[in-house]
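Appendix B. One record, verbatim.
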Amino acid sequence: MTQGHRTRREEYAALTRQALIKSGSERFSSSGYSDTSIAQIADDARVSKGAFYHHFADKSALLKAVLSDACDSAARKIEYVFGNQVDSDSLVSGALDSAMESIQVDSRYRNLRQQAVGVLSAGERRELDNRVRVPLVSRIFALLEAQGKIGDDVSVNAATVLVVAMLEATLDEMTASDDPQRCYAEYRPLLLRFIESLAD
């Protein structure tokens, strides 16, 4: 078999896992995490409960996978921005806006994040979000550094930690807000101003 090609069994397993993630996302959004059973999720995905447990240890593991899928989607949007912006100013603001877009416009994603607060630990939620935040901020600073726009007295590692923490706080506020767009409008200029203050 050629390297990189999946077997039929591997393809079926991937399709089954994706069907469970889709079913879980829809059920958690419409019925709520606590009122959704594994049997309902499996039925919606048209698989057995055994198939569910083959892919996920429990319902919380599925919720984590659902949120991970959403993070991957956000990462693809950010990647598009990095591939299509020409100057660093529009790249920084565009990447930041892309990272925060889902929480503003996707009520299902916002609802899932709110439910995750009572199910996943703070560390698990941070780990998921940092899959998007850390690469985003690291790439922004790498670009600014390559263009000679980062001051000699600025530690890029320390700056990354601070900006990631600021993004985490912003995302948490937006998740809890009744008006996430207004919330982001308040935080956005402060985030951009801080990042710009690190550049010469």
